[in-house]
Design brief:
2 copies of one chain form a homodimer. By secondary structure, chain A is mainly α. Chain A is built from 22 helices and 2 strands.
Chain lengths: 730, 730
C-alpha cells in the first residue's frame, strides 16, 4: 500500500474530532429560559421518537436484505463473502451520521435563539457550527468506513494475486457498501420528506388558512411536528442523501480507476486512492473554510450570504490548488488532465447552484413574474410556477452535459476512444464536486437550525428584535437550502453516471464468479472476460439504442421517476389530510386552546406524522428496490442499464424542475410578504400561499426523493449484477 | 409492382369520396335561425382568419426549409433531388386536410344545434359524420400522397437497379415527406394549443371568476375566440398531429421493410407495401364502422358512449380479421407473426385508451379522490391532481413496453438477434394501432363540434331541452377527447420508435451519397456500408450507453421535453394575460355590455389569440428544429440517436402525465358541478375550477405538443442525416 493513503483515515479522524469540538462548544452555551428549553425539548423528543421509529423499520429491512445477500454470497456463490458485512456497515455509519447530526441540530436551535437575544454573529456562529457537525460527521464517518474496508480488504486480497485483479475485487466489493448507505438514505430522505411536509402542509392548511393564526404559533398543535420535520427532512434526510453521494462517488471512481489502469499495477493503485485523497484534502479545507464564516452586528441579508459564501469560496479555491498538488505528489499519469476533470466537477456544481439561485430567488425576474401572476389568481400562479420550473431545467442540464464531455475529454487525453479513462474522469469530477461537502453540507444543515430557532423565538414570545435576527438567519437558510438542493441533485447525477460505469465492473466479477471466463460473440469472436473492455461488454450485451430490451428498460426507468414522485406527492396529500383532521379535532376538543390557555397535544401530531411517513413510504420504497431486480431477472443486462439511464436522464430533469418550481413559489410568497403587490393578507398573498403549499412537496419531498431513486436503483442493480447474469430469463 | 398495391390509391379515393358525401349531407341540413347562423359565422370567420394567418407563417417557413433542402440536394449533394418536393407535398396535404376538417366542423356546429332542437340522434349523426369528414380526409389524403410518390419513384428508380436497393432509396426518400407533415403539425398543434387555451383560460378568468357569468355567455368578448379555439386546437391541431403519425408510421415501416428484406427482392416489395395495404383496409373498415354510429331518443350518457364504441369496436374487430387475410393474400413470409404484431399494436392502443379513461373519468376512484381533495382547498386539488397524473403513467408505459417486446418477438420469430425483422414488427404495430384512424379521429373531431353546438345553443338562448341534448353530446366528447389524447400519444411513441430505426437507413443512404462505401471499425474490421446491418451501425458509431455522446444526447432530449412544455405553459399564461386585459377593457369601455344591450368586440379577442399563438410558438418551434441539427453537427450520430431516445422516453411519460392530470381536473370539476360535494358555486367548486384552469394548458397545449416534439425531432434528424455524417465536428 502507498504510504500517502494513510492521509485518508487520519483526516477522517480529524473531521470527527472537529465535529466533537464544535458540538462541545455549542453545548457549553445557554439554552435560554424555561419556555425555550421546554420547546426545544419537545422538538428533540419528537425528532428522536421519529428516528427511533425509522431505525426500527430500517432495522427490519436490513435484517431481510442481509439475509438475501448472505444467501447470494454463501449459498448461491453469486457474490463475495464480504458483501453482507459491507452492506451493514454502509447502513450503520450513515445512520450514525444522521443520529449525531440531528441530535446536534435539536440541541442547537434554542441555543441559537438565546444567542440571538444578544448578538447576530453569536447566533450565526452557533447555528452554522452546529450545522458543520453534520457536515463533518458525514464526511468523517464516510471516509473512515472506506478506509477501514480498504485496509481490511487489502489484507485479504493482497497485491500478489497479480495483474492488479486484487484491486478490481477490492473496489467492486467496497462499492456494495454504498447499497447500505443507499437504503438508509431511502428511508431518511423519503420518509423524512413525507414527514416534514405532512406536518407543514397539514398544519398550515388549518392554522394559517382556516384559523388565521401565524406560522409557528404555539396554539397550532402541528407546530412542534413541523419543527421536528425540519430536522427530520432537511438535516437527517439531506445528510443521508449526500452521505450516499459522497461515498458512492468515491467508491465508484475507485472501481473505475482499478478497471481503467488494469495491468499497470503501480498506476492502478494510485488511480484507486486518488479520489480518497482528494476527498481527504477536501475535509481539511472544509474545516478551514468553516472558521471563516462570521459576520458583524447589524449585518444585512447580503452580508450574511457573503459570510457563508466566503467560507465555501475559500474551501473551493483551495481545493483547486491542493488537488493538483496531491495529484503531482501521487505522481499519477496525466495529472493535469485528471485535475481538469476535478475542476470541471466543481465548476458544474457552482453553475447548477447559481442557476438554482437565479430561478428561485425573488431578486431575479423569474420569481418576480410568478409573484406578479398572482394578479389573475392562484391558477396562473401554478401555471407560471410550473412553466418556469420546467424552463429552469435547461441550464443545469447543459452544465451537466458540458461537464460530462469536458471531464471525459480531460481525463482521456481528448480521445473519445479511451472510454475507461474518460469515465474515470467523470467519476473524479463527481468527487471534485463533493470534495468540499464538509462545508457545503454545513450550510444546508444550518438552515433548519435557524428555522427552528425562529420557531422557538415565536413560540417563546421573545421580542421583535430577536425574531428579526432569527428571521434574517432563517431567510439566509432558505437561499442556501435551494442552492443545496441543486447541488444534491447535481452530485447525484454525476454519482449515478459513475455508478453506471462501475456496474460493468460488477458484471465482470459476476461473470467470472459463475465461471463464464470467455465472452463468445454472435460473430464467433472470443474475448477473455477478465480483460474485456467496457466497449466489449457493450457490444457483447448489445447495449445499443436499437435493442428493444434497452429501450424498454429506459421507458420503465423514466416512468419510475414519475411514478415515484406521484406516489410521494399523494403520500404527502394523504398524511397532511390526517394532520388536518387531527388539528381540527384538537381545536374543537381542547377548550381554551385558541386563547392560549391550554396547551395543544403536540405529541399526537408528531405521532401522526411519524406513522404516516413510515406507512406511506412502503410502496415507493419497495418499488425502487424490486423494479431493478425484476427488470434484471426478466430482461437481463441491457434492460438494467437502460433502466438506470432512463431513470437518470428523466429523473434528473424532473428533480430540477420540481425543486426549482417549489423554491420559486416559496420565494414568490415571501416577496409578497415583504410588502410587494399588496403585501401580507392581500388577494395576491392568498394566491401565493396556494403556490407555496403546492411547492412544499415539490421541493422537500418528491424532488429530493428522486436523487435517492436514481442512485438506489443503480446500487440495487450493482449488488444484484451477479443474480442478473446468472438467472435472467430473456 | 405488385397488382394488389392499387388497392391503396383506390381506397384513398374512396375515403375522400365518402368525406365529400358526408360533407354534402351535412350541408343540406338547416343551420337554424338568424342568431344561430350569425354566431356560427363569427366562429367560422375567426377560425378561417386564424388558419389564414397560420398558413402565412407556415408558408414562410416552408419557403425557407425548401431552400435549405434544395441546397442540400442540389449543391451539397447530401440528399436526393426529390426531397424538397416530398417535403412540400407532405406539408401541403396535411394543410389541406386541416382546412377541409375545420371548414366542415365550423359549418356543422350550428346544424348540430338545430338538429338537437328536434332529436338527439339527428344531432349525434350530424356532429359525428362531420367529424368523420376530418377522419376520412386525413387518411385519404395521407394514403393518396403516399401512393402518388410510391408510383412516381418506382418509375424513376425501377427494380432493375438490382438487389432491392431501389426500394431502399424509394422508401427513405418518401420518409422525408413526413418532415413536411411534421412541420405542418408543429404549427397546427402547438399554435392551435396556445390559441385555444389563451382564449379559454383568459375568458374564464375574467368571465367566470371575476364577473360571475357562465361559460359561453354571449356577453363575454372571449366567447367566440374560445369556440374558435376548439376548432383550431382540437380539430385542426389533432388532425395534423395524427396525419403525421399516420403517414410517419406507414413510411417508416416501409423503410424498415425495405431494409429487413434486402436481397429478397420479392419479399422486400411485399414488406414495403404491407403497411400501406393494412392502412387501406383500415379505411374501408372505418367507413363501415362510421355507419354503425347512431343512438335512440332519450339515450343516457352510457348509451351514447356505447354508440360510439360500437362503431370503433366493429372497425377494430374487422381489421383484426381482414389484416390477416391481406397478409395471407400478399403471401408475405411469417404472416401470422406479422399479424401478431398488428394485433399487439391495436391492443396497446386500446389499453392506453382504457387507462386514460380510468384515470380521468369521474366514474372511477382517482378523479373522485381529486374532487374530494377540494375539501382542503385548491392547493390539495393541485397536489393530488399532479400526483395522480404521475401515477397514471405506469399503465401506459407498461402497455407500450409489453407492446414493444411482443411486436418485436412476433415479427422476428421470437429471436432477439433478428433486429431488422423485430423493428419492422414494432413499425407495423404502430400501423395497426393507427389503421382505423378514419373512425377514431372522427370521434375526436366530433368533440369540438358538439362543444361548439352547445356554445351556439347557449349564446342563441335556446331552451333547456336543447341545451341538455347538446350537453350530453359535449360530455361524451370530453370522454372521447381524453381517450383520443391517450391514443395520439401512444401512436406517437410507436411511430417515433419506427422513425428511430429508420434513421439508420437514412444514415446509410447519407454515407453512400458522400462516398463512404466501407465502414472501417476501430478493430480494423471492414464492412460494406450497403450491406451493413443495424447492429453493425450501432457498433460502428458506438451507440451504446457508456458512450458519453449518447448520454449527453439523452440528457438534452429529456430536457427538451420539459423545456418545450415550460415554454408552451408560459406562452399560454402570457397570451391568456393579454386576453384578460382585453376582456376587462371591453367590460369597462363598452357600455351596456353586461346587460346584453350591446355586442362585445369578438373579433378583437380572436385577433389577440391569433397573434399571441403565432408569436409565442416562435421560440419553442425554432428550438425543436434547431436543437437536433446542432446536436448532430456538434456531437454526431450517437448524440442524435441519444437525443431522439431521450426525448421519446421522457417526453412520452411527461405527455401522459400532463394529459391525464388535465383530464382528471376537468372531470373532477364536472363531477362537482353535477351536484357532488356541494355542487356549483360551493367552496369545493371554486377549488376545482382552479384545478381545471391549471389543467387546461396541461391537457390541450403542453401535453399534446410533446407528441409533435418527439416526432418532429426524429424527422429533423432523419432529413439532416446526410448533413450529420458529412459535417459533424466531434
Amino acid at each position: 500500500m502507498n504510504d500517502i493513503f494513510w492521509f485518508v483515515p487520519i483526516t477522517s479522524i480529524i473531521a470527527l474530532m472537529f465535529a466533537l469540538y464544535f458540538f462541545k462548544q455549542m453545548m457549553k452555551t445557554s439554552e435560554g429560559n424555561d419556555r425555550m428549553i421546554a420547546i426545544a425539548s419537545h422538538v428533540r423528543k419528537g425528532a428522536m421518537a421519529y428516528l427511533k421509529q425509522q431505525y426500527k423499520v430500517v432495522g427490519i429491512f436490513f435484517v431481510i436484505m442481509t439475509a438475501v445477500f448472505s444467501v447470494m454470497a454463501y449459498v448461491l456463490n453469486l457474490q463475495n463473502p464480504w458483501v453482507p458485512f459491507a452492506f451493514l456497515t454502509g447502513g450503520f455509519f450513515s445512520g450514525l451520521a444522521g443520529f449525531f447530526g440531528m441530535k446536534t441540530a435539536t440541541y442547537a436551535s434554542a441555543r441559537t435563539t438565546n444567542a440571538a437575544i444578544s448578538s447576530l454573529n453569536g447566533a450565526l456562529r452557533i447555528a452554522f457550527r452546529s450545522g458543520a457537525v453534520m457536515g463533518l460527521v458525514v464526511v468523517g464517518l464516510g471516509l473512515l468506513d472506506i478506509s477501514i474496508w480498504f485496509v481490511a480488504l487489502n489484507y485479504f486480497y493482497p497485491v500478489e494475486l497479480g495483474d492488479g485483479h486484487n484491486l478490481v475485487i477490492i473496489t467492486t466489493t467496497m462499492l456494495t457498501f454504498g447499497m447500505g448507505a443507499s437504503a438508509q438514505a431511502l428511508f431518511a430522505r423519503v420518509g423524512g420528506g413525507i414527514y416534514t411536509k405532512a406536518a407543514d402542509v397539514g398544519g398550515d392548511l388549518v392554522g394559517k388558512v382556516e384559523a388565521g393564526i401565524p406560522e409557528d404559533d404555539p396554539r397550532n398543535p402541528a407546530t412542534i411536528a413541523d419543527n421536528v420535520g425540519d430536522n427530520v427532512g432537511d438535516v437527517a434526510g439531506m445528510g443521508a442523501d449526500l452521505y450516499e453521494s459522497y461515498c458512492g462517488s468515491i467508491l465508484a471512481t475507485s472501481a473505475l480507476g482499478a478497471a481503467a489502469f488494469l495491468g499497470e499495477t503501480d498506476m492502478q493503485l494510485k488511480a484507486v486512492i486518488a479520489p480518497m485523497l482528494i476527498a481527504a484534502m477536501g475535509i481539511i479545507l472544509s474545516i478551514i473554510g468553516i472558521f471563516f464564516v462570521k459576520t458583524k452586528e447589524g449585518a444585512t441579508q447580503k452580508d450574511l450570504l457573503h459570510s457563508l459564501s466566503r467560507g465555501i469560496n475559500i474551501s473551493s479555491i483551495l481545493i483547486i490548488i491542493f488537488s493538483l498538488a496531491i495529484l503531482l505528489v501521487l505522481d499519477i499519469s496525466n495529472p493535469y488532465g485528471i485535475w481538469g476533470s476535478i475542476v470541471v466537477g466543481l465548476v458544474t456544481g457552482i453553475i447548477i447552484g447559481k442557476a438554482t439561485e437565479y430561478y428561485t430567488s425573488a431578486t431575479y425576474k423569474p420569481t418576480q413574474i410568478i409573484a406578479e401572476s398572482t394578479g389573475t389568481g392562484p391558477a396562473t400562479v401554478i401555471i407560471s410556477g410550473l412553466g418556469t420550473g420546467m424552463i429552469s431545467t435547461a441550464i443545469p442540464v447543459i452544465a451537466v452535459v458540458v461537464g460530462i464531455v469536458l471531464a471525459f475529454l480531460f481525463a482521456s487525453g481528448f480521445d473519445f476512444t479511451q472510454m475507461g479513462l474518460g469515465l474515470y474522469g467523470i467519476g473524479i469530477a463527481a468527487v471534485g464536486m463533493l470534495s468540499t461537502l464538509g462545508i457545503t453540507l454545513a450550510t444546508d444543515a444550518y438552515g433548519p437550525i435557524a428555522d427552528n430557532a425562529g420557531g422557538n423565538a415565536e413560540m417563546s414570545g421573545l421580542g421583535t428584535e430577536v425574531r428579526k435576527r432569527t428571521d434574517a438567519l432563517d431567510s439566509l437558510g432558505n437561499t442556501t437550502a435551494a442552492t443545496g438542493k441543486g447541488f444534491a441533485i447535481g452530485s447525484a447525477a454525476l454519482t449515478a453516471l459513475a455508478l453506471l460505469a462501475s456496474y460493468i465492473e460488477e458484471l465482470k466479477i459476476g461473470l467470472l464468479r459463475i465461471g463464464e471466463d470467455v465472452l463468445v460473440f454472435a460473430s464467433g469472436l472470443k474475448i477473455d472476460t477478465a480483460s474485456a473492455t467496457l466497449v466489449d461488454f457493450m457490444n457483447y450485451y448489445e447495449v445499443n439504442l436499437m435493442n428493444p430490451k434497452v429501450l424498454i428498460g429506459m421507458f420503465i426507468g423514466s416512468m419510475m421517476s414519475f411514478l415515484f414522485c406521484g406516489l410521494t406527492m399523494n403520500a404527502v396529500g394523504r398524511a397532511a389530510g390526517k394532520m388536518v383532521d387531527e388539528v381540527r379535532r384538537q381545536f374543537r376538543a381542547i377548550p381554551g386552546i385558541m386563547e392560549g390557555k391550554s396547551e395543544p397535544d403536540y405529541a399526537r401530531c408528531v405521532e401522526i406524522s411519524t406513522i404516516g411517513a413510515q406507512r406511506e413510504m412502503l410502496i415507493p420504497a419497495s418499488l425502487a428496490i424490486l423494479v431493478p431486480i425484476a427488470v434484471g431477472l426478466l430482461f437481463g443486462v441491457p434492460a438494467v442499464i437502460g433502466l438506470m439511464v432512463g431513470a437518470l436522464v428523466a429523473g434528473f430533469v424532473l428533480a430540477v424542475f420540481m425543486a426549482n418550481s417549489g423554491g420559486a413559489w416559496d420565494n414568490a410568497k415571501k416577496y409578497i410578504e415583504e410588502g410587494h403587490l399588496g403585501g401580507k393578507g392581500s388577494r395576491a398573498h392568498k394566491a401565493a400561499i396556494i403556490g407555496d403549499t403546492v411547492g412544499d412537496p415539490f421541493k422537500d419531498t418528491s424532488g429530493p426523493s428522486l436523487n435517492i431513486l436514481i442512485k438506489l436503483m443503480s446500487m440495487v442493480s450493482i449488488v444484484m449484477a451477479g443474480l442478473t447474469v446468472a438467472f435472467s430469463v430473456l
